[in-house]
Batch of 4 targets.
Target 1
Amino acid sequence: MKRLFDIALGLLLLPISLGLMIIIAGLVRLSSKGPIIHWSDRVGKRNIIFKMPKFRTMHSESPNIASNLLKNPEDYVTSIGSFLRKSSLDEIPQIISVIKGDMSIVGPRPALFNQYDLIKLRTENGIDQLAPGVTGWAQVNGRDELTTVEKVAFDIEYLNRMSFFFDLMVLWKSLSVLITRKNISH
């Protein structure tokens, strides 16, 4: 049922968001040199690496590490990038990954390929068996403010409580977080 919900919601959101994606693509193109879409190597279900699309929010020459690990991340973010990140509009292309089956609408956020400590903890706790999500339980309970251990604790809680109705609750809370911008630091 989860996969069916993902496909249905993905197919519904894709045409609805198309106009917005065209506008964002134009803004990304005007704000800096480089591709409009950044294809990030992410860890998916069973720790299989997949290419996750996001609107590019950083300059092309930026290091390929989690932005919270950069000394001065604001030095790498494009003029439109900060807004796209704080509003989560950079995530819209992930609808394609949901339809394709690399991601789910709700699940643990996919780790970067080089976030070894997060990958290890998730694997030890069975989280690697879940499809990563566009949004997730950790996202709505702290997002950028959480440590790796705290993220995994929320991932474990999600694994234990996972259901259609729990996913609906996470989606509802995600909208609330987006509107209030709570715990969004970059």
Target 2
Amino acid sequence: MRKILSLLIVACSLALPRSGAAGTPPDTVEGFHSILLGVMKDADSLGVKERYQRLAPSIDQAFDLSRMIQIATGGYWKDAGDSQRQRLTEAFRRLSIATYASQFDGFSGQAFVTDGERSGPQQTVLVVTRITDPKGQGADLTYVVKSVEGRWLIVDVLLDNAISQLAVRRSEYRQILKAGGVESLIRALDEKAESLLK
């Protein structure tokens, strides 16, 4: 269970809202949960690269990965050139998908429950959910969802209403950026993704 929770903080993979681009924030989150559970249930018959292919479209369609990596890298994003930004976003995308593909490799009765939504800061909506488990373990997950060009996209995830994915990423990436800049971070993300997909 802790593995699942930590991975949800590292990288999120979502489906398109079930009601189309306009949809609602809970549609986006529940679509993600449906895709994730489907991959988990089929994991025994899928290799890591097949799980990667199953998850990739959901991530591309439902996450604002560019915004997430921009926030996580702060001022370094502003100083980067267009080519570096594109490669950094792609490296972040690949690692996000690879993390789920490598770790969500089984199912033991977990379920995701949506408990509601409320207004969040900076014109976001907070979708409150929880993970249940047959063994009685569980935890709260709050998705930060924002309207981007008519679509509701995930921009952050809070574990137990406190631990922000973006805050964790920003702290981790800052050390790499200080030591070697954007190129160093791109290499680190690519190398990690490659190791997960072997």
Target 3
Amino acid sequence: MNKFWGIFVFALSFVSSVYAASLAVLTEDDMISAIKKEFAEEGVDTPMELELFGGKTSYSFENVQKLKVMVSHLKYDEEQNKFSATAEIFADGVAKDKTILNGRYYLLQNVWVPAEDIEKGTVLTEDMLKTISVRENRIKSSHVTELEKLVGSEVKKTMKAGKMFTDRDIGQVILIKKGKIVTAVYKAKGLQITTKAEALEDGAAGQMIGMTNLKSGKKFQARVTGAETVEIQE
């Protein structure tokens, strides 16, 4: 009995393998790839994501060696990101079916984001960042996505890996903190005068900040020129 069942299971497995080998399948991913190619033919070769919500999106045929889908009559609405297209299915070169596909398309853009969690106060370097593809309609005017604008900036709050930066999340590196005692320099006609002063606010390179002269108590404005110096402006 055991030998009989063993032969039966083997035979069933063999039949299943033969059946699977003779079954050709066209998936939704195949449909999407064909539509993307048609978009490229129309001059829209920007990376994109597609969502299908109308039409037949998968096919399977027995005893077929090759399935192919050809897309035509592509129409798309740039304002609503909707599209429609005709997909014709060929099995071994013979037309088998035709369907109208409808959906939405989303153009993608590469943006720079944290490669891992970044602590507040960290000065960004390129190795802390990575690129990901994001739908363009999810990128707001407040997002900062360019590498050159991020590197060298200071993180103002803890950032999670993969999250896009906004202009509130980063800022210039603070060289002088409020309350710090620095050297204030005044230059005029070859004359240079220095004095000690206290910063009344934080300041990054090139920023004007309020200062108090430690000797006279007089308040004045000065430009941050380094971590230990400011330059008094006339």
Target 4
Amino acid sequence: MAEAPNQPTSKTDLFVSFTLLALQGFGGVLAVVQRELVDKKKWLTREEFIEEWAVAQIMPGPNVVNLSLVIGGRYFGLGGALAALAGMLVFPLCGVLLLAALYAQVAGHPGFDGALRGMGAVAAGLILASGLKLAPALQRNQLGVRVCCVLATLTFVAIGLLRWPLLWVLLGLGGMACVLAYRKLRP
């Protein structure tokens, strides 16, 4: 696996970069984070991003916050992790508090409700686009494309159609995927 050609220059660079990421992707930043960290800044390769994102998903808490901790820690240790975390939280928290105050004023307006529904559809499309863009990295996955696609389909059916709780799907299918990967990687 090739190393990413760039890295953050300082903790301030981490803070500013993650602040801008957080402010760009209100409500779902996977597409934005992947584009910025892999395509523009080149701090991670696609494969590294997928691996780090997988780790971030199994940690408790919001995925992108976890990712900021992992990346900050990778380059600058605990100080970098805290700088990236602060970047993800400080200005967005101020923005959310301001939006909460404004929302109280317009909560019942029908046009506002429609705008929120439209934003949800856009966020879903961005997540789908990111998944499709990252799909070629599955060619190098130890489980193979076919097994990954079967696991993704089973996950969609279990959560999206059958409405099974995420925890049980994660434990069942995630556990099965871990066992399969362990068998493939075992010497």
